[in-house]
Amino acid sequence: MGASRTAAPLAVLLLQLLLHLMRGAAAADADDETAALLAFKRASVAADPNGSLADWPEANSTSAAGSPCAWAGVTCDGGRVRELNLSGMSLAGRLRLDALLALPALQSLDLRSNAFNGNLAAHHAARPPGTPPPCALVHVDLSSNDLNGTLPRAFLKPCTGLQYLNLSRNNLTGGGFPFPPSLSTLDMSRNVLSDVSLLNYSLTGCHSIQYLNLSANQFTGGLPEFAGCSQISVLDLSWNLMSGALPGRLLTTAPAYLTHLSIAGNNISGDISRYDFGGCTNLMVLDWSYNRLSGMWLPQSLANCHRLEKLDMSGNKLLSGSVPVFWGGFQQLKQLVLTGNNFTGEIPDELSLLCGTLVVLDLSSNQLIGGLPANFSKCRSLELLDLGNNQLSGDFVVTVISKISSLRVLRLPFNNITGTNPLSTLAADCPLLEVIDLGSNMLDGEIMPDLCSSLPSLRKLILPNNYLNGTVPPSLSNCSNIESIDLSFNLLHGQIPPEVLFLPKLIDLVMWANNLSGDIPDKLCSNSTTLETLVISYNSFTGGIPPSITRCVNLIWISLSGNNLTGSVPSGFGNLQKLAILQLHRNSLSGPVPAEFGSCSNLIWLDLNSNNFSGAIPPQLAAQAGLITGGIVSGKQFAFLRNEAGNICPGAGLLFEFLDIRPEQLAQFPAAHSCGATRIYTGMTVYTFNKNGSMIFLDLSYNSLTGTIPASLGNMAYLKVLNLGHNDLTGAIPDAFTGLKMIGSLDLSHNHLTGVIPPGFGLLSFLDDFDVSNNNLTGEIPTSGQIITFPASHFENNSGLCGIPLSPCMHNASTGDSSQHSPNGRRKFLEEFVLLAVALLVLIMATLVVTLYKLRRPRESKTEEIQTGYSDSLPSSTSISWKISGSREPLSINLAIFENPLRKLTYAHLHEATNGFSSEARIGTGGFGEVYKAKLKDGSVVAVKKLMYFTGQGDREFTAEMETIGKIKHRNLVPLLGYCKIGDERLLVYEYMKNGSLDVMLHEKAKIDVNLDWKARKKIAISSARGLAFLHHSCVPHIIHRDMKSSNVLLDDNLDAYVSDFGMARLVNALDSHLTVSKLLGTPGYVAPEYFQSIICTTKGDVYSYGVVLLELLSGKKPIDLTEFGDSNLVDWAKQMVKEDRCSEIFDPILTDTKSSELEMYQYLNIACQCLDDQPNRRPTMIQVMAMFKELQIDSDNSFLDGFSIDSANIEESSEKSV
């Protein structure tokens, strides 16, 4: 008993001691975790703009901080930090994870949607050997930040329990693998990944990965096949740069668990009509849209995918034939998207077998005829129906569609639907409708007055380009959810009901080209400020601009032009900080041009022409030069009508909202019809609206402005159009205008300007329209650049102006040098010429001596370099962290680097792969060097260009130029894969093109067994034009090719054309503008005539060269051929044939097999002749060439033009929908 009584207090004492030790240990662990969190804050959080971490102690605090379990974003379990969620807090700083990875109980780390940046170089805290794994993480989300560079090898591999890793929406370039084998979800989408080894690892070493998303990156090469991914369920490789044929075993080797497969938005090719879909029995989502798949039909084997819920084959414009009829086996299909192909015939009734499950049906942008079969009225679950851009007709909207009561979105634009508009029927029978788009049909009648009482959910009412009449019903104000109203290009009259302007969610109000009248209601934005687009131009509105317009602080586009507005511009426009486009032209507005326009921080388009504005041009208009970030105008479709009829039509041109408007209808619009020479360009470029740093369009012409031209306008380096003509301006043309590096159209005519034309105007390389006529200018017209190529009418009526193209300057010309015309002056000139010639001869001899010395150097040093030198490629992608306008833009310039596998190639490898650069391996010789076919050790075949006569550039300059060239990726440009520099050798590694050059294909038929028919030649013409247009208009900086010719147009095995050697030209940029070129580049027969007058190369010179290539395609003849043309050439001969009305003799005899093809050849010849105009300013740009192809409806895939259209080029949106 005594012993037990003694043991009891001892046990209690031991228990208390144990609890004390445990509390001490817990306190120590809590202190460690507190220290780790504060270390993270100190190292990574440089900014906390919202004060989200206000309850966290200061990062450098030395006082006791206590338990972190109550801090913002921290979740504990048993006193240990288990979760850290700081998502969406706008935190910024250079992210380091080492402190957080040291938290022993941390399972979930969520830092998404912040502004963390930097390279993730630190993985985890070091621990002594033998201790438990330092990382307990299961869930990591670092998405939507600004992380860049290459991930550390085996990133997070110590986290042996990691299951979820999301690194999407950053700027990562590769690395990170191998990942923990426990990983089941990996999302690295929307980065700039180009590391092919990462892609290959992901599909071969994926272990337990079930979800893999690598979409919206920059992976190149072919599609890899599956291996070792037995668990994968979702695979998304969409919107990359992958090409090549569709692997025949892609689905047959796919894992059994695969349910989602997307390869959309690549360049994958192949005949899908022969493809075996036997391995898709478990697939639920199959998205192969926007590739280059061909075939006459979808194969019957597709019926094996009986579990499919979504099938998307859109944007493969070579898919043709009838819509297949085997849809009965798809019992679960919810989304069928076949838009943007060439399906013909009627919509098969068999498609209605899907009605039991179908939610989305999109057959738009095909060539379907007839109507919608009656059985589709049974589609009780259908919510979205898009049949736009076809040739449908009949009354199926009333008889069939109106019976689909589940419909929410109905799109039927660009068809041939006639009769009274069906709104009343749709409103009665489809009460759930949110979007109605019936634009560009032939509907008439009035807009029903009680529309929204039956359609309470209506968000978009799109009815332009019909024959609707009557008035705008005031009852539209009952549409409390409506966001967009487009009634433009109809026959509406009367006033805009003030009630409509009270709509609480209204974003777009577009009613241009009607006959609306009265005052614009002064009720704008009285109920809300959501309005972004107000386009009511070309009506008959009177009165003034309502002052309430300045309350609409979210307005982006205002167009009130072409009305009868009077009075001055109300004050307050400076408050509209989002305003990008302001069009007030063709009214009777008066007063001064408001200086506060310069306070609009996003204003890029200002058109005030043809009014009664007076006073001076405010210099503040240029206040935002260099500050505008661009990109605020998005989701819009535009048409620009360029005025090419001179004074017949005032102003530089007209910009219109172009959604659902047919181009042929626009051509009949009075503002365009009265200007016979006006050309219509539809779909403004992304570059125009998203890459600007200043105003791009400023038209103040046809007013009564006085005073001098502000020199500050010369600061607007991105200005493309400046029209100050037809005013009363005085003084000199500012020398600062030489800073308008992007100017394309400059009109200063019909003023009272004095002085000389600044000599620096000759350096404005993009200038294609220049007019200073009817002023008081004096002196000699600058002879450099393109100035002298403009017609005399653009300089006339300046009494003191002389020189080409006007009469020669006399001895006493105010700015001329009369000394050359005197005997002494001529003698002095001759002496100077002789001295210059002697100096040039000495320089040439010195160069030869140096060259011979280098050639005679001992070979030992060369051999040693071959053994030890490694090829260089672009630097590690850690140096490339650019973001354009805050979002990725895959169909514009791609910021890619060379493929990593080529980095480890030595000069010796390339030497071996070309058999010592033997003549047998040589496949071509050009002005820049010889080209060899090389087969690398991995079996891949590349082309190696060995540069010759390499002088003038040091290593740094050469590397810098290669870095720029390597970033350029486009479907019609030959990509540079890598380069090697060792000693004096410079080797460029390109993708190999199987069919060689167009030059050989056309002119050396004995070497090949392929005859190019007219269809192939059309394809080559458009593809090469597309590539050249990309160089001119979408690369930043722009690139002038300088040697465009048929031998620089290469053909792959599908006869797709690729422009090569573009990287050999010096790059155009805002600072250099290629103006230091001191020699003529180009090949005889392709060189523009103005190059013989000026050494400055321009984009219009490239256009001329392209015209020669187009003429080669049409004629099959060489540009220079003594036996064919003697001392003449192809261009002069063809022009003579046209002049003599003998055009048919131009065409290659093997092409004129059908009347239809001959008609097309005449149309192509017309385009070639425009490109070959002797006057550069009269030649089209390459964008305009593509527009002409589109007008001829020859460019069947329209991919180039779509890529530059604002409403369709936003891959962020497109890829979002496809994921």
From TrEMBL:
Swiss-Prot/TrEMBL GO biological process terms: brassinosteroid mediated signaling pathway
Keyword entries, A-Z: ATP-binding, Brassinosteroid signaling pathway, Cell membrane, Glycoprotein, Kinase, Leucine-rich repeat, Membrane, Nucleotide-binding, Receptor, Repeat, Serine/threonine-protein kinase, Signal, Transferase, Transmembrane, Transmembrane helix
UniProt cross-references to InterPro entries, sorted A to Z: BRI1_island_dom, Kinase-like_dom_sf, Leu-rich_rpt, LRR_dom_sf, LRR_N_plant-typ, Prot_kinase_dom, Protein_kinase_ATP_BS, Ser/Thr_kinase_AS
Signal peptide: 1-27
UniProt xrefs under PROSITE patterns: PROTEIN_KINASE_ATP, PROTEIN_KINASE_DOM, PROTEIN_KINASE_ST
One GO cellular component term noted in the UniProt record for this chain: plasma membrane
Example of a GO MF term: ATP binding
Domain of life: Eukaryota
Domain Protein kinase: 917-1201
Keyword Coiled coil: no
E.C. no: 2.7.11.1
Membrane topology (UniProt): Single-pass type I membrane protein
SMART domains: S_TKc
TM ranges: 833-853
Binding positions for ATP per the UniProt entry: 946
Compartments, as annotated in UniProt: Cell membrane
Listed PANTHER family: LEUCINE-RICH REPEAT RECEPTOR-LIKE PROTEIN KINASE FAMILY PROTEIN-RELATED, OS11G0197000 PROTEIN
Record family assignment: Belongs to the RLP family. Belongs to the protein kinase superfamily. Ser/Thr protein kinase family.
Name listed for the protein in its UniProt record: non-specific serine/threonine protein kinase
